[in-house]
Write a structure and sequence with these properties.
Layout: E1 2-4, E2 13-14, E3 54-59, E4 64-67, E5 69-71, E6 78-79, E7 88-91, E8 101-107, E9 128-133, E10 138-150, H1 156-160, E11 166-178, E12 183-198
Length: 199
């Protein structure tokens, strides 16, 4: 898996490698790439948190409990993604979860078997995501939208652009696996907003 990020023109995540099993996201018509490309209305007025790196991600709905590594940008502007043995990571160039703006966490859908985000497509609006941060706080986010986008139509501004509240973006690959190119054809993005900033 390789991810591409830039504030204005790029943003798609391109996954490569051999899929462990067919991935069949159950994305409804209301959350598909053909849906309105706008930021969902915030679900709460939770207080914005100071900067603190995320160290753990938990999503009870799909059984995710993973540590997080730091992800930066490569010289070509692509987001460095977790190596094969590491499940997920967060983009250090953006906000940390709980700060104002969209925090970004990326994970593999598969890597010689199901990856940490293999079941990400099963999330629905209202599901909760908990992030543990280095300062001990555990902000909770509520899913507002699950959407799938073709990589050549990835809405960078929608996913990475400025927002007026603390948000979270979980990104992985989806759609069909193209054996010729060695990449999945789509990206799956979960949008979530800060619900509570529990310690």
């Amino acid at each position: 898996m390789a991810a591409v990020f830039a504030f204005v023109t790029l943003g798609a995540t391109a996954c490569s490698g051999q899929p462990g099993a067919p991935v069949a996201p159950s994305v409804s018509s209301s959350t598909s790439q053909k849906g309105p490309q706008r930021e969902p209305t915030p679900t709460s007025q939770a207080a914005t948190l100071a900067r603190s790196a995320p160290v753990r991600l938990q999503i009870a709905r799909i059984g995710v409990d993973t540590t997080l590594m730091d992800l930066g940008l490569g010289a070509d502007g692509t987001l460095n993604v977790p190596p094969g043995g590491f499940p997920a990571g967060w983009y250090t160039g953006g906000p940390t979860p709980g700060e104002m703006g969209p925090a970004v966490i990326a994970g593999h859908v598969d890597m010689k078997g199901p990856g940490v985000f293999y079941q990400l497509h099963n999330l629905r609006s209202g599901d909760q995501v908990t992030v543990t941060r280095a300062d001990g706080s555990k902000p909770v986010f509520r899913v507002t939208r699950v959407a799938q986008f073709r990589k050549d139509q990835f809405p960078t501004k929608l996913v990475y652009g400025n927002i007026d509240h603390p948000g979270l973006r979980l990104i992985t690959c989806g759609g069909a696996f193209n054996s010729r190119s060695g990449h999945y054809e789509d990206n799956l993005v979960v949008f979530a907003d800060l619900l509570a900033s529990a310690r």
